[in-house]
Specification:
Layout lengths: L1 H9 L9 H19 L9 H9 L6 H8 L7 H12 L4 H26 L2 H12 L2 H7 L5 H21 L2 H17 L3 H18 L5 H19 L7 H4 L13 H9 L7 H18 L10 H26 L13 H13 L4 H22 L11 H10 L6 E4 L7 H6 L5 E4 L2 H9 L10 E7 L7 H7 L3 E9 L2 E8 L7 E4 L4 E8 L6 E10 L2 E2 L3 E11 L8 E6 L2 E7 L5 E9 L4 E2 L1 E5 L4 E2 L4 E2 L2 E10 L2
Parallel strand pairs: 1-2, 1-3
Antiparallel strand pairs: 3-5, 4-5, 6-18, 7-8, 8-15, 8-18, 9-14, 10-13, 10-18, 11-12, 11-15, 16-17
Helix pairs in contact: 2-6, 2-7, 6-7, 6-8, 6-9, 7-17, 9-10, 9-11, 10-12, 11-16, 15-17, 16-17
Length: 627
């Protein structure tokens, strides 16, 4: 609390008053921002880049090794180092990894309020803070374990003290401007473009400065420059990782990238676009009609903000775009988050310029309501899976891989090590092209030929095997598992010959009778209601672990509940979900008798009016011998 108090206090310009009503409004916005950024913070699985973060900040890596590893990355070290410190002292998990971004998201609402307030008044600050509170991009990256939200916060604070310094030439503003610009530089290398835009802006304001103040102007900005340069010197030797990049996964940005990114910032919410467009047009036209003298620009909030925002945005876009054309593509939507605060305040200024107060309030309320509807209902942001489900997929593989079978993983084999480690697994990963590796498994004389059993997993836009390749593979192997998640999947293949692994599968094609359906060529038995029975399997004496894999469909807010029977005796109860669900139980076969499984649907129901039918789908029963 003391740190937060200090943060809010030192950033408040004591020369400007803040009334009780404004304090109440900003408090409400901060509480709302905290709710929207912390709610369901760990609902989504970590996606590829976030898992990359977890590996870099792994607390088991020594600090000495950490610096050599982090120095080779294309991002500066601040965010990684912050997380490593947290992981080393508090804990190592995805929730803690996202908390710094969520805090930065809340603080960014306060920071942008101060920036808007510095440019004009409390009203502009409040409208800008309100837009930020419900901004899709801000919320999204506040819930991601990456450095972008810190960049948003620090670029806002950098410009806050940059503008204060331009206006007042105070020593304290020079120091804070230097500190926040240095933090921004340690947070994202796009800070270089921000600094260059500030240099251009500074030169223009220097020319407009009174001659007797120019010496002070130079001294103050030189002090800020010294703070940035001296503070960043220790990291200069590591910059080769960025400057020597010759190729990139980033595609060349289209000519219309500015419009594309603008839509991206606001979640491609078409209903918001008319309001945003009208606000920006109103802002630009007001500047055009303002007719202010450049000599008095520091006293003219409209012209000052337009000069700062225009150069801030154009230079931060133009320079990476030119480098993308001449060297290597580097312009990407989320990297340009550093210009979003300028756009938000420009939009807020345009809304504030609506002269009729009732019309202005209604427009702002409509904007907020449309934003809430878009995020909460259209996108279902807090309840709909939207990130690759590596967490669920890896958890499924670990739960069904007791013999540590080889795993073919083409795209994300490095990053997924985090979730394997969290599941206490040391996987036998085979990296490389899945198609080439499958060919090797099927080709006599290769090191992988006739592998008895193996997984193929993928995620992050990694395609599964083609139908032709799968059909070829299934001449010698049975695909006993095909778990599909959002942008992630896992397949388990078992040789049709004796595996020697002590594993017996009861598959959909072993369906015998009951109220179910099996279609040849598919990997599931549909259980419509009542019960189904599978053909008996001869099992030697011994202790076994049975794993039943199934999923269900919803009706009246409930999924199927299944009772699992073995030789007529109830062994387990299973509560299905929309994804593949596992039920496990142990069985001691003391007689060497056949194993006859049946499954009963205990809560069959339907809701025809909503086209809902509560059905279950059985994928397999795996019997693993334990002794």
């Amino acid at each position: 609390m003391m740190l937060l108090y200090y943060y809010f206090y030192v950033h408040m310009d004591q020369n400007k008053t803040i009334d009780k009503k404004t304090i109440l409004y900003i408090a409400i916005l901060l509480i709302t921002a905290a709710f929207t950024r912390f709610w369901h913070l760990d609902y989504q699985s970590l996606w590829l880049d976030e898992m990359h973060t977890m590996l870099f900040a792994d607390p088991t890596i020594s600090w000495k090794d950490y610096w050599s590893i982090i120095g080779a990355d294309v991002h500066p070290p601040l965010h990684y180092t912050l997380l490593k410190a947290i992981f080393s002292t508090i804990g190592y998990n995805s929730l803690l990894a996202r908390i710094p971004s969520a805090i930065a998201g809340v603080l960014s609402v306060w920071a942008i309020f101060l920036l808007g307030r510095e440019i004009l008044n409390n009203k502009l600050g409040l409208i800008a803070a309100l837009i930020t509170t419900v901004n899709y991009y801000n919320i999204y990256f506040s819930q991601e374990a990456r450095n972008y939200m810190l960049a948003f916060l620090f670029v806002t604070l950098s410009f806050l003290f940059f503008i204060r310094l331009l206006k007042t030439l105070k020593l304290s503003h020079s120091i804070f401007y230097g500190i926040y610009t240095l933090l921004l530089l340690y947070c994202h290398y796009y800070a270089v473009f921000v600094i260059l835009s500030q240099v251009v802006i500074g030169i223009l304001f220097f020319l407009a400065e009174e001659k007797e103040q120019r010496a002070v102007f130079i001294k103050r900005f030189l002090l800020s420059a010294v703070i940035v340069v001296v503070g960043f010197l220790p990291w200069v030797p590591f910059l080769s990782s960025v400057t020597e990049v010759k190729s990139s996964w980033i595609p060349l940005a289209p000519d219309s990238f500015m419009f594309e990114y603008f839509n991206e910032y606001f979640g491609y919410a078409n209903l918001l676009m008319p309001i945003l467009f009208i606000a920006l047009v109103a802002y630009v036209l007001s500047v055009y009609n303002n007719g202010a003298s450049f000599k008095n620009v520091k006293k003219d909030p409209l012209t000052l903000s337009f000069i700062v925002f225009t150069l801030w945005i154009i230079i931060s876009y133009l320079l990476p775009y030119l480098r993308s054309l001449t060297a290597v593509p580097m312009l990407y939507g989320r990297y340009t988050m550093i210009v979003l605060p300028a756009l938000i305040i420009a939009i807020a200024y345009g809304l504030l310029l609506i002269k009729n107060s009732a019309a202005r309030i209604i427009t702002v309320i409509v904007f907020v309501l449309l934003s809430v509807v878009d995020i909460g209902m259209v996108k279902a942001y807090y309840t709909r899976v939207s990130k690759s489900q590596f967490r669920e997929m890896v958890g499924y593989v670990c739960a069904n891989n007791p013999d540590n079978l080889p795993i073919i993983d083409e795209v994300s084999y490095i990053q997924q090590q985090y979730y394997f480690k969290k599941n206490g697994a040391a996987p036998n990963i085979i990296p490389g092209s899945k198609n080439d590796l499958v060919d090797s498994i099927l080709t006599p004389g290769t090191s992988l030929y006739n592998t008895k059993a193996f997984w193929i997993i993928g995620g992050h836009h990694d395609n599964q095997l083609s139908d032709d390749k799968r059909h070829l593979l299934e001449t010698n192997y049975v695909r006993v598992s095909n778990a599909e998640y959002y942008d992630a999947w896992a397949e388990l293949y078992l040789s049709k010959s004796d595996t020697g692994l002590g594993i017996t599968y009861i598959l959909p094609q072993d369906f015998d009778s009951g109220n179910g359906t099996y279609t040849p060529g598919t990997d599931v038995v549909a259980l419509w209601g009542g019960n189904i029975k599978f053909k008996p399997k001869a099992m030697p004496e011994g202790k076994y672990r049975a794993i039943v894999c199934a999923r269900g469909t919803i009706a009246k807010d409930a999924y199927p509940t299944l009772d699992i029977f073995l030789n007529g005796q109830k062994m387990a109860r299973m509560y299905t979900t929309p994804g593949r669900t596992i039920a496990t139980f142990d069985w001691n076969n003391t007689t060497g008798s056949n194993a006859t499984f049946s499954i009963a649907h205990t809560n069959d129901d339907a809701w025809p009016a909503k086209n809902e039918d509560r059905n279950a789908f059985i994928y397999y029963i795996m019997l693993k011998r334990l002794n």
